[in-house]
Amino acid sequence: MSGGETQQTILDAVQAVIVRDGVRGASMRQVAEEADVSLGLISYHFDDKETLIVAAFERATARLREASEQSIEHVDDPEERVRAFLRSSFGEEFLDGDYLRLRISLWAVALTDPAIAAVDASFFEEYATALRGLITTARPDLDQGEIRGRSIDAIALTNGIWLNWARYRNADDLEIGLRRCEDIILGPPQQGTR
Question: Which of 80, 81, 31, 82 is nearest to 56 (CA)?
Answer without folding.
Answer: 31
